[in-house]
Amino acid sequence: MASFIIRRFAQAMVVLLVMSLLVFAGVYVIGNPIDVLISPDATQAIRQQVIEQYGFDLPIWQQYLHFLQRLLTGDLGSSFVFNMPVATLIAQKLPATLELTLIAVLFASAVGIPLGIYAGYRPDNIAARVIMAASILGFSVPTFWIGLMLIMVFAVQFGILPAGGRGETRALFGVPFSFLTLDGWSHLILPALNLSLFKMSMMCRLAASGTREVMLTDTIKFARAAGIAERTILRRHVLKLISIPLVTVFGLELGSTLAFALVTETIFSWPGLGKLIVDSITSLDRPVMVAYLMLVSALFVVINLCVDLAYAALDPRLRHGGQ
């Protein structure tokens, strides 16, 4: 098991190094931040002073080495626009995005997996057909349209939920969270529901297809022949056999939801990383853009590493290279 973890960790480090090179090269060929940092009326001497101050006069490979050196020491640089450390800026916005993402993915899993198992267990049932038909809508309808409809129905027509904002927060270990207050929950319900619908549909269809496949295996036939109750079969056998693809989707969707919560945060005015990265792209705030992309890359790598470890825990054959 130790060698398995070491191999996966080494692979994760290589991926992060490659991603740092791609992110840096991709961001630093976009536009010229000097045009944003100083007035167009500035003299050439002032422009040259700012270029040297930020190291833009160095060759691109030297800028990358300096960036990599700062990254290894935890220094993400300072924002050109906000004039503050990028790490501090991201730390202020990250809790809101993490809270929204985790609640959305957990809700999608808690609802989608049981519905999918039921639909796969009784595929000819009317309720199962309704579930599968509804899951198609989750894939088909755009997220922004669903968000607007949720606001129109629950905030405008009925007036029972707020249309945007984060609401009242309460600190937990010094970090503000909305789920700790009733007002925070009222602001959290609509964006979390909007963000979870696509994930819920995916979980539902994956669980349904996996359940239908597992129900035809000899394992289930022998369990029924032994007189084991259907509820026990579903809990101990079916759920265990379909757990590996579900863990995969859960991990990948957690990362993608965190990275692409931009639309939902924009619609519901949720003060997370989405608005920050949009403002940074508009103003060519390179340190914030690079830090955000590296953060997303690191989260994907960490989540995939955790998924691999979960694989090894669920299937011991994977710890030994399939032997």
UniProtKB/TrEMBL annotation:
Cellular component terms per the entry's GO annotation: plasma membrane
Taxonomic superkingdom: Bacteria
Transmembrane annotation, as ranges: 12-31, 100-121, 133-160, 172-193, 241-270, 290-314
Domain ABC transmembrane type-1: 94-311
Protein name according to UniProt: ABC transporter permease subunit
Record family assignment: Belongs to the binding-protein-dependent transport system permease family.
Range of residues in the leader sequence: none
Protein's cellular compartments: Cell membrane
GO biological process terms on file: transmembrane transport
Annotated keywords: Cell membrane, Membrane, Transmembrane, Transmembrane helix, Transport
Membrane topology: Multi-pass membrane protein
Pfam families xrefs: BPD_transp_1, BPD_transp_1_N
